[in-house]
Amino acid sequence: MSDLNSEPCASCAYDIRADLGEGPVWISSENAIYFVDINGRKVHRFTPGLGEAHHWVAPGKVAFLLPVEDGTFLAGLPDGLYRFDPQASSFEKELDVEADKPGNRLNDGCVDLHGRGWFGTMDDSEEAPSGSLYSVHHTAEGFVLRHHDTGYTVANGPAVSPDGKLLYACDTPNGVIYRFDLSADGALSNKRIFVNLPEDKGYPDGVVSDSEGNIWCSTWNGAHVRCFTPDGVERASFAVPAMNVTKVAFGGDDRKTAYVTSARQGLSDAVLARYPQSGSLFTFRADKAGLPQHRIALVKAD
């Protein structure tokens, strides 16, 4: 990969054709990639080196998985955060989220270097700006939710810079990636536009940071992953043989193997004929290493 004029293309790693694939997470101890099919209400695990796959059925539309340091995950379901234990195949509710907004659901998340989780919510009909941005952290009394920002139709991202001082979040239908200053105590300030993605390049879906602070943006209705420098300049792009590209996770021994989720949701027969593997898991080799996968920190009760 060198520049925009010699654009590489991702290949299919796992031909699963999920309706709404999202939220890839690389678990290095398993050499496996976890991801979800939101509409299919499933959690998937794929082990590339072995070609093995497994799935679990979730109790609702599961939007993301945030790894926890005890080997479980915090899973985002429509009504709140659940503890997902792959070993027990169980989902147990930890926190209600937006119980007063039954038309909303949770959507996309990440973990920062301080062990805090970040996630957004959205209007499930993708019409009203009723979504918000939250963080969650663990205390001796349990998980604590914190509200940070609102006015999102579809809150996506989020992603945190390598030094933990910047947070990025998208409002997908409006084509905007925002950047915030993030303090050590988890407060957000100085919201500003990082990138306005032109409509002809698609809509910004999931974003992640690499080890040098570049932002990798998957594009809904854009068939690409686009990489932006910390100054917001597009430095590279990767074609993906799926129109709706949703998120990237970096894996492998050097964290330069990108795994990309995608979706079939809303695509016409004509588009599916052009991109028959839409909804599958794709992969490409990046020229930058991703960040290590952080985990939500647990505090022991006294």
Automatic annotation (TrEMBL):
Domain SMP-30/Gluconolactonase/LRE-like region: 20-264
InterPro entries reported for this sequence: 6-blade_b-propeller_TolB-like, SGL, SMP-30
Catalytic residue positions: D205 (proton donor/acceptor)
Keywords tagged on the record: Metal-binding, Zinc
A GO molecular-function annotation: gluconolactonase activity
Transmembrane feature ranges: none
Origin superkingdom: Bacteria
Named cofactor requirement(s): Zn(2+)
Cofactor binding, note field: Binds 1 divalent metal cation per subunit.
Sites where the protein binds substrate: R105, N107
Gene3D superfamilies: TolB, C-terminal domain
Binding-site residues for a divalent metal cation, renumbered to this chain: E22, N156, D205
GO biological process: L-ascorbic acid biosynthetic process
Entry similarity comment: Belongs to the SMP-30/CGR1 family.
Name of protein: Gluconolaconase
Organism field: Asaia bogorensis NBRC 16594
